[in-house]
From TrEMBL:
Residues 7-113, 184-238 form the PH domain. InterPro entries: PH-like_dom_sf (IPR011993), PH_domain (IPR001849), PI-Interact_SigTrans_Reg (IPR051707). It comes from Lates calcarifer. SUPFAM superfamilies: PH domain-like. This is Pleckstrin homology domain containing A2. It comes from the Eukaryota.
């Protein structure tokens, strides 16, 4: 069963199917590093490896949506197997026994649990703040209104009523929001949203531009969609 090391990390040996659906499991040493926001696995216990030996696999905890015991349909011939559902794929791991499996499932779910803070009292709708923004001719003052919508702080300029900035408790995967790196994108990063039918919270990749807020299952999915429409547009020009 897993143990806790001196750095308060959950550690232990597990077998992992490193290539999905290969049915070939490899023995690896796992470290659940909540401070580093990652699940790491090594060829062996790092204490037995040469100094400076790196991990052979990793998974960010923010990418994990659910950890559960594998069903007989998923892995009929693998005992004490559990599955990690991540953004891009599923990771199947085999524990030493049923207690070991359940301890790992509980530890991983606890480490990757999405906690949504209770929204505080909303500021008065007449709350107006003056901010300084750069212009080509110097600096000017701009007034905007602050509101809390679904637990997200939204600053709305009074002049045009459009979104110009936002913050969330989650931001991107390292806990901070970042500016969009493409023209027209004001902000992008990982946030959490609540489902309309199933009231569970899921991590999604959000983008904010001048007119809309969009979200995708992951940043990779967004890139694939943009590439698809780029190819379509190129074909239409031929």
């Amino acid at each position: 069963m897993p143990y806790v090391d001196r750095l308060n990390r959950v550690c232990g040996f597990l077998d992992i199917e490193e290539k999905e659906n290969s049915c070939r499991f490899q023995r690896r040493y796992f470290i659940l590093d909540t401070q580093g926001n990652a699940l790491l696995w090594y060829m062996d216990n790092p204490q037995n490896l040469p100094s400076g030996a790196s991990f052979v696999g990793s998974l960010k905890l923010t990418y994990i949506s659910k950890v559960s015991e594998a069903t007989a349909k998923q892995k009929p011939k693998t005992e004490f197997c559990f599955v990690i559902n991540a953004v891009s794929r599923r990771y199947f791991l085999q524990a030493n026994d049923v207690t070991d499996m359940r301890d790992w499932v509980a530890a991983l779910n606890k480490a990757s649990k999405i906690t949504v803070p209770k929204p505080g009292p909303a500021p008065p709708r007449s709350d107006v703040t003056a901010v300084i923004s750069d212009t080509q001719g110097g600096k000017r003052q701009q007034a905007y209104k602050t509101e809390i919508i679904g637990g997200v702080v939204v600053h709305t300029p009074i002049q045009d009523g459009g979104f110009r900035n936002y913050d969330s408790y989650n931001g991107n995967e390292d806990g901070r929001e970042r500016k969009g790196n493409r023209p027209g994108v004001l902000r992008c990063g990982y946030c959490v949203k609540q489902g309309n039918v199933r009231k569970s919270w899921k991590r999604r990749f959000f983008t904010l531009d001048d007119n809309t807020v969009s979200y995708y299952k992951s940043e990779m999915v967004r890139s694939q969609i943009l590439f698809f429409f780029f190819c379509i547009s190129c074909l239409s020009l031929v």
